[in-house]
Amino acid sequence: MVGRMRTIEGERCVAEGAAWLAAREPRFAKALEAAAPLALRSAPGGFDQLLRAIVGQQVSVASARAVWGRLEAAGLTSESAVLAAPDEALRLAGLSRQKTRYARALAAEGVDYAALPGLPTEEVVRRLVRVPGIGVWTAEIYAMFALGRADAFAAGDMALQEGARLLFELPERPKEGPLRRMAEAWSPWRGVAARILWGHYHVAKAREGVL
Q1: What's the whole-model pTM score?
Q2: Which of 3, 29, 41, 121 has the highest Cβ tally under 10 A?
Q3: How far apart are CA 142 and CA 148, in angstroms?
Q4: HSE-up (13 A, CA, CB side) for residue 187
Q5: 141 located within any domain
Q6: What is the pLDDT of residue 1?
Q7: 3-state secondary structure of 163
């Protein structure tokens, strides 16, 4: 697909986008020397992916995995199961009171996940952020990895912001608005640019002994 509906369907697509970006921005080419090969990072779409995002909000990766494991073990990863379960069951699995409310709201929303691949990214984000607990960052991450949108870009992601600061030697980490404007030059491959920035961030932090 073309334009903002272009999808990443495999590692070859990621490589195509990386080559396009490297040809236009020497700093991307430099980052790729250390960060390549870039991760595909695709994920199946659907309710459980957004529920995973809710589970992972404001907790460590290890904690999120532990909670998700308990939800899976209890059979609480589908819309019908979340709606039918008492609050106590969700709380025992590790969801806070607020996340329990968010999980129920998502399950009750009746998102037409099958329709999302045919919608522009902006419309996907608009529909998803109507759900309590789903913000722009979560919706854009869903578009990037569950829908494979090549031009989606989660400008509110702090690791992306820090990766941009490091790669472009900016005086400070750019906020969401400035980074979104900066990323306009990387269209129609902003999703691949994000992968490069994430890769550069992890390489830089590993050299610092942070990761």
Answers
A1: 0.88
A2: 121
A3: 8
A4: 13
A5: no
A6: 41
A7: helix
200 CB-side CA count, 13 A: 23
Which structural domain, as residue segments, surrounds residue 58? 47-134
Distance CA 201, CA 211 (A): 10
pLDDT at 16 (0 to 100) = 95
Q: How far apart are CA 75 and CA 147, in angstroms?
A: 25
- Residue 54 belongs to domain with CATH number: 1.10.340.30
> Are 25 and 82 within one domain?
no
CATH number assigned to the domain comprising residue 11? 1.10.1670.40
pLDDT digits (tens, 9 = 90+) for 121-167: 999 999 999 999 999 999 999 999 999 999 999 999 999 999 999 99
**Cβ contact 21:35 at 8 Å:** no
Contact at 8 Å (CB) between 106 and 50?
Answer: yes
Q: Tell me the C-alpha distance between 58 and 104, whole Å.
A: 18
pLDDT value of position 210: 56
